[in-house]
């Protein structure tokens, strides 16, 4: 681990002018693109380097989140949550089942609190505790769902990254099953 001399983007965002904000957001968008283009060290979803570990992050509960040996197992897990949400009228019956075409490297917690703006203007992404190999679009869904934590930053970032609106909506429909519904 290295020490990065700088300030969290969360702490300095209000002091940045519009040009500096655009630069920060552009660097983060580039990070997302780079992460998603890295050849994967594994073909099963979950934390990098630990195929026997449970999935971690915002979209995964402490109850039965893997390990997932395949994309199909991950789809089945999410589809079970979708079924629970539908059974309790928390999601429309016509929401399609999850189907993941591609796994990519995903941070899952990109937020100003996890970004350090170095003294040279370079943005550094920290707190990789939830990172792993997950479906393409999960990063977008994570950003969109938690945009309330940093609305301006997130809105600017969402404009610069590939859009996965259908997946983001599907993920929102299963929130009931990830919270209250996980105990059913």
TrEMBL record:
PROSITE patterns named in the record: PROTEIN_KINASE_DOM (PS50011)
Recorded GO MF terms: ATP binding; protein kinase activity
Superkingdom of source: Eukaryota
All residue ranges annotated as the Protein kinase domain in the record: 1-184
Pfam families hit by this protein: APH
Annotated SUPFAM superfamilies: Protein kinase-like (PK-like)
PANTHER family referenced in this protein's UniProt entry, alphabetically: AMINOGLYCOSIDE PHOSPHOTRANSFERASE DOMAIN-CONTAINING PROTEIN, AMINOGLYCOSIDE PHOSPHOTRANSFERASE-RELATED-RELATED
Protein name, entry field: Protein kinase domain-containing protein
Organism encoding this protein: Aspergillus glaucus CBS 516.65
